[in-house]
Amino acid sequence: MTAARDRDETPGMTNPSGPLKGLKVLDLTRVLAGPTCTQMLGDLGAEVIKIERPEAGDDTRGFAPPFVPNTKESAYFVGVNRNKKSVTLDIASAEGQAIIHKLLGHCDILVENFKVGALAKYGLGWEQLRAQYPRLIYCSITGFGQTGPYAPRPGYDALIQAMGGVMSLTGEPNGTPQKVGIPVADLFAGLYGCIGILAALNHRNHTGEGQQIDIGMLDTHVAWLANQGMNYLATGENPARLGNQHPNIAPYQEFPTKDGYIILAVGNDPTFERFAKNFGCAHLLEDPRFATNPKRVENRDLVTATLTPVMQSKTTAEWIVALEALKIGCGPINTLKDVFNDPHVKAREMVIRMDHASGEQVEVIANPVKLSATPPDYRSPAPVLGQHTEEVLCGMLGISAAELAALREKKLA
User: Fold this and answer.
1) Which CATH superfamily is domain 252-334 in?
2) Which of 7, 18, 43, 86 is the S-S candidate for 377 at Cβ 3.0 to 4.6 Å?
């Protein structure tokens, strides 16, 4: 684990660096899809101003336990809100909307994940802002996008996983459909949103024109059906649930070992030949049911039944040593404790420590993007609610202390 880079400035108030340095993002997102997008922008150097409801804040502040040790912050919130400034503001009020317009005068990008049409009620929809702020990049992340029959519906991760088909592909062959154990629909939507923003920035650099990015969680879910989606388009047949087996490669699955389980990933025929010749299975190479990958896929149950006793002859650790020596894909099935103790994960510095406003250090998962010249910039951990309200409203916008006090008295900030 590494600490956030040392700087002379006070923790949480450092100046951004990175490829997006100088860009300002108005963050009107909450929960996961939107915050994933804006955290990525913040990690790449953008200054992100997160607008939160007075007193309540982002819903995920209450998604606990667990809390980060010795703080009042949920682990969920802290995981996707670093490198952001928290400003409390009631955007449903006329005063709040006026302040949003002042902020837009300073910002390059607006990211929101309200229901379709919700921001238009406050005069903050794309069509209402585009003429006044022609350079604005406006990213909308919703469950079903801005158009289509489902556009008004709310979007939730499990709902999108179900409707997007991945649940029909996940689980044991004779079991029930299963969702993925992490909220992949939210995460992919946030990352696709970030990709769209980066493309829009490049367009603006050439033309001076802003634009709206319309991200629908269902769209992004369909997009990452990948080989299974193409398998359906090629055959017109719904792919079956295969548990941990691969639809197009065999053997590519988990096997029991003498003391646990292992993933064996035999990606091609030469690799299967090495496996068979080195582990007492050379005779299988003469069997047409094993000779080629298409035949092994066609006879996957036989392949599994034949190799299972072979794999049970060694421990997981013994198999990993033996298979890696032959450059045959394999790996243990790790718990999260195993993951975060893995020497490679540690060497890649995928956990960092940051100084939190509570006075404690918090551990967070690092950004996986490794840039040689402009690496991710860990300036500040997830903020406490309203931590930067005065800094942004008074320091950036010039609102007086008396005006801010009046807003707070009316619970508008």
Assistant:
1) formyl-coa transferase, domain 3 (3.30.1540.10)
2) 18
Among the listed residues 155, 143, 98, 146, the one whose alpha carbon sits nearest the alpha carbon of residue 126: 146
Say how far apart CA 282 and CA 100 lie, in whole Å.
70
The neighbouring-strand residues paired with 28 are: 112
- CA dihedral over 130, 136, 137, 142, signed as positive or negative: negative
Domain spans of the chain, in order of start: 2-225+362-409, 252-334
Nearest alpha carbon to residue 23 among 82, 90, 89, 111? 111
The rounded distance, in Å, linking the Cα atoms of 33 and 358 is 26
Catalytic residues: 186
Residue-wise pLDDT for 342-384, tens only, equals 999 999 999 999 999 988 899 999 999 999 999 999 999 999 9
The topology under which CATH files domain 2-225+362-409 is Rossmann fold (3.40.50)
C-alpha to C-alpha distances, 130 to 46, 97, 116, 207, 215, nearest whole angstrom: 21, 16, 17, 15, 18
Pair of tokens at residue 381: 């951990």
* Residue 16 reports pLDDT greater than 80: no
Q: Each residue of 54-86: pLDDT tens digit?
A: 999 999 999 999 999 989 999 999 999 999 999
| The model scores a pTM over 0.90 | yes
Asked whether this chain's domains 2-225+362-409 and 252-334 adopt the same fold, the reply is: no
Cα angle 320, 180, 377 (rounded to 5 degrees) comes to 80
Q: Which of 383, 345, 313, 367 is CA-nearest to residue 61?
A: 383
